Amino acid sequence: MMREWATVVAWQDGIATLHSEIKTSCNGCSARKGCGSAMLNKLGPKDAHVMQIASEKPLQPGQRIELGIRESSLLSSALLVYMTPLVGLFLLSGLFQMLFHSDLAAACGALLGGMGGFIVAKGISSRFGDREAFQPIILNVMLPPDAIRVEQESL
């Protein structure tokens, strides 16, 4: 089970709005200056993920909760997102090459196949995304921020 901590922003009618910071592993590596991933990471959005999840327990803003998602659903989602466009790219590229006997046609087929694969992946993911196996679940709930009191005993 993949785990991630998130902060409750709001809770209303059994739906919690959560805020989760984006974590990267680029800060721990010594090859930051020559790494392409670090450069792409700087270009990307710096804000956090905001999501909504069902919660029967009332939650307070500022409360931290631990979310979990199954590895199998995460891997199948990644497989769908990466492999569908790749398969479309190769199939249409090969088909256009076979039909038109031209490298330009093969390149156009690859472009159309890749774009078609993305569209197919989006359609399939919207169908399967609502299934329970693909939804994150609440594993742990921390105490609300105002519930923790520290009292110091005087000697």
UniProtKB/TrEMBL annotation:
Pfam families, per database record: RseC_MucC
Top-level taxon: Bacteria
InterPro entries for this protein: RseC, SigmaE_reg_RseC_MucC
Keyword Transmembrane helix annotated: yes
Residues that span the membrane, as ranges: 74-98, 104-121
Keywords for this protein: Membrane, Transmembrane, Transmembrane helix
The name this protein goes by in its record: SoxR reducing system protein RseC
Biological classification of the source: Bacteria, Pseudomonadati, Pseudomonadota, Gammaproteobacteria, Enterobacterales
